[in-house]
What we know:
With 453 residues, this protein is of the alpha+beta class. The chain has helices at residues 12-64, 66-79, 141-192, 208-240, 242-255, 262-294, 306-323, 343-360, 417-427; strands at 84-89, 95-98, 111-117, 120-128, 134-140, 302-305, 327-331, 338-341, 366-373, 379-385, 431-436, 441-447. It has a 5-stranded antiparallel beta sheet. The chain has a 5-stranded mixed beta sheet with strand order 7-9-10-12-11. Strands 6-8 form a two-stranded antiparallel ribbon. Strand 3 and strand 4 (120-128) form a beta hairpin.
Amino acid sequence: MKSARPIRGAKPATLALVVAGAVAVALALGLLVADLAGERLIERRQHLVAETARDYFVAFAHQDGLASMARALDHRTLNEGGAFDYAVFDDDGTRLGGVELLTAADLPAPGYAIRTIAGADYEILVQPMAVGGTLVIYENLADRRAFHGAILGAVGAALLASLIIVAAAALLLGRLLVRRAEGIAQAAETIAGGDLSARAPIAGVGDVFDDLAEAVNAMLARIEELMTGMRSVTDSLSHDLRSPLTRLRGALNRAQDEDLAQAERLALIAEAQARCEEVLATFGALLDIARAESGLSRDLMAPLDLADLVRDLGDLFEPVIEDAGQSLTIVVPPRPAPYLGHELILRQALGNLLHNAARYAGQGAQVSLILSQGDQGGVDLVVADTGPGVPAADRGRVVERFVRLDETRATSGSGLGLAIAAACAKLHGGQLVLRDNHPGLRVVLSLPNASSP
């Protein structure tokens, strides 16, 4: 058996590249947002520090005067350093203390401004004071930009690591997905090659592929069942129709004898007609089974009273049962039993069960036709007899088409009666159950709750 070819176009590397590309775009956007947000955050932080220092020195000048504040700024410049530098000018533009980076004439307007001084970028805060003079706070932007770059680099490294991890995960996931899909495809190709027993593998993890594999396996099991049933029907049909068709041909051949008396000729023609009716009945039963199993008859379901149906069938088959030397007991509840079903197929199914009882239970047998409450609110239609019954080992296969036990092949019949009853049960969403009646056979047509509105 050849292995399934790989799924065209389903390459794990391609999936990984697509996912990695999408993640890369998302990470690039994230990095851009982080860059802008980080820059604004650092700027707000530095502005807060500068404005806190501004408020401190303005209060200092108001309390101790400009001269004292100038000496404090000189001391800070010489001894503390830091990210900020300070200067103070009097109203005449003379620098009283602090760093000498700009002259009073070069100072920008009050507020924040950026200037390049000696090749370095500074953000400058100019603050006129109520006591006179002007306070100037300088921040060298190199430190701020270095800090921002370090944060951006760390974020970028984390995002790059995330991209690598996502790409690797996408590659592994792609391989897993392709492997699971190829397992299902291989099962389908094996089935197409003629091996109806192949099934899609189930990993047992409960994911969507397990659900898909279970659905595919259910479909494959149904296909195998139908194909096996078709072969069985073909084999049985050729076996069971050979005799009536052979007798039909023999009767027609003899009827062509010119020396044959008219009465004998008519008898042979009547025999041929009977054989034709037998063959047509077989094909009609097959058609009924096919319609029931396919659900085509579901549209014809209508409200009915099962109690009336059982009584009518009992009255109809009581003479047939008595002619076979048997007795019929009908057990029906006194109240109506409304149900939504296909009356014709229900009648045909129960009629076949009663025919089987009359044909195979034997003289002296007691036959019962019962309508009773089933499980979970459903109903049971029961045909039971006290005849020889069916061995437990054969009860599963006698409901198949054309299956007849060896001891019954001497009698007439197509072997489709129980198959029609089983198809009827399936059409109504129920099941056909064969049980031991101690003695005899008890056939239960168990139907789910489907009361008419």
